[in-house]
Every structure is written in structure tokens, then in C-alpha cells.
Amino acid sequence: MNRYCFCLQVRPDRLDEYVDRHRNVWPDMQAALRESGWHNYSLFLRADGLLVGYVESEDLEAAQQAMAATEVNARWQAQMTEFFQGIDGRPPDESFLLLPEIFHLKED
């Protein structure tokens, strides 16, 4: 299983609404993520809008492509696009700035 970390920038004037939307992610969206190969997926949000995501997947590109083929993802991304800066109208899940892993404390 590979680990991936990414960043996006949420518009500071939309932070509260963005957080509210993620308190109740649609059950069909959660199921689609699991079925598409997204594991241990977490989002972290700084007060200035920096969003850091972490996900584990055998192949993130394949997991993203599988999600892109779902109807629920099209609906979700259409609603989420307006919350982000710097993505030029692209869906947020196609706009990740992936960060290279430089250290991992392995379990014994």
C-alpha cells in the first residue's frame, strides 16, 4: 500500500461551509471512495485554508480514474469546485499538489 499526501487551498471565506459539507459526506460518496481503492483517507484544514490530504492506495492514479467514472463523484466535485482557489475550474480531485514523502516511521 502506498501513502500519498496532497495540498489544496480552500477559499478562506468558505472555510466554515467546507467543514460543514465534510461533516456529512454522502454515504454513496464514501462507498465509492472505498470501492475505488481509497484507504485511510483524511483531510486536515488549517485556519488560512491550507488543506492537506492523506490517503493510502495501491495506485492513486487508478483510484482517481475509478472515482472519475462514478456519477456520485461528478456530483460531489461539481459542488466542491467553488470552494477552492488556484484550480482554474478543474475538479479538486484532479488538482492535487502531491507532496513527496521524505520520512516514514515504520512499525516494528
Automatic annotation (TrEMBL):
InterPro entries: Dimeric_a/b-barrel, Rham/fucose_mutarotase. It comes from the Bacteria. Pfam families: rhaM. PANTHER family: L-RHAMNOSE MUTAROTASE. This is L-rhamnose mutarotase. It comes from Kribbella karoonensis.
